[in-house]
Amino acid sequence: MKKVLIIGGGAMGAAFSVPLIDNNQKVTLTEPYNTKLLNQLLHKKKFHPSLKIVLPKRLSIKKFSPHILSQKWDLIVIAVSSIGIELIRKHLKGFKQKTSILVLTKGLKYDRKINKIITMSEQLSIGNKNLNISVLKGPCLAKELAKKIKSYTVIANKNIRIAEKIGKIISTNYYKTEHLTDVRGVEFSSAIKNIYSMIIGSGEGKNTSSALFRKSFDEMEYLVKFFKGKAETVRGLAGLGDLYVSAVGGRNSKMGEYLGKGFNFKNAKRKFMKKDTIEGADLAYEIAPYILKKVNRKKIPLMISLLNAVTKNKKLKITY
Ligand SMILES: NC(=O)c1ccc[n+]([C@@H]2O[C@H](COP(=O)([O-])OP(=O)(O)OC[C@H]3O[C@@H](n4cnc5c(N)ncnc54)[C@H](O)[C@@H]3O)[C@@H](O)[C@H]2O)c1
Prior knowledge:
Blueprint: E1 3-7, H1 11-22, E2 26-31, H2 35-43, E3 47-48, E4 53-54, E5 60-63, H3 66-69, E6 75-78, H4 85-92, E7 100-103, E8 108-111, E9 116-119, H5 120-124, E10 132-137, H6 142-146, E11 151-156, H7 160-170, E12 175-180, H8 183-201, H9 206-226, H10 231-234, H11 237-248, H12 251-260, H13 265-272, H14 279-294, H15 301-311
Helix pairs in contact: 8-9, 8-11, 8-12, 8-14, 14-15
Bound molecules: nicotinamide-adenine-dinucleotide (NAD).
Residues 8-13, 31-34, 50, 79-84, 87, 104-107, 136-138, 140, 142, 153, 279 line the site of nicotinamide-adenine-dinucleotide (NAD).
């Protein structure tokens, strides 16, 4: 039995406890930011408000504190949204243990100091290069995982044995893991697919969306190679796999649909999706300053159109 700490009680963090518990691990879930959510989980008999299920009986739920990190864990899982990575980074700055850390968060950050786009795992290790970080990405709707619907995911670490070891802790007959060494490719693919699912959603019909899907794949390959990942990783679960699930349903493709109908981003957000987090749009704001200057626009026309539409609040114009 392994001791696992999950940081982030949102949909994915909570759903991730399900296969771990089925695998007989001793799991603690902690929420570092959203007090309302934490109180709901603690006082409403573990009913999760967005998953709409009661979390496993054997799951322990605790308030987050720096002290919790210093306890002995076999695996620490980070499942906060990309904006929350900075908070966790600060807490891990003085972390001395060699404990395996697994990052579920999808996203990228433009680091203005070094003028580079960095991944979530790179952001976490700023200030502590000794952290033992792996990443887990791929097509996974939290609600489906919580209902034990068969899902496949990919774990990446430069040392494949570490990735495989983590795979043994989490995989069950309904949650299967693949293992890769291309950490950058996996992180870039899983982040930019949020932007491409908006583009695919903007197609005027399914025929158009399919053509956009095919074009998106080319651009994802180009970008992943540009950022020093492997093109072949885009063909895997973190790329094509995750692009499919986000494009057929989800908030990014829904926003894409409104953009395709001619709404500008701000109007569509206000009118139809006021309370929703659109991860692809957040990412567009984050990476646009870099991409619009540093990447050859002719190689990524779909990405450029979307970045302009979101960040400059212009009508989406897709020509290819
Ligand atoms: N790797 C995978 O298989 C997989 C699958 C689904 C989602 N995800 C990713 O997991 C992350 C969380 O997704 P979710 O669906 O659980 O989202 P969610 O909105 O349900 O939960 C967000 C979590 O982040 C925390 N958070 C938000 N703002 C914060 C801040 N400023 N500081 C600290 N913590 C903060 C919240 O308290 C909550 O715990 C996203 O990056 C998402 O893309 C990964």
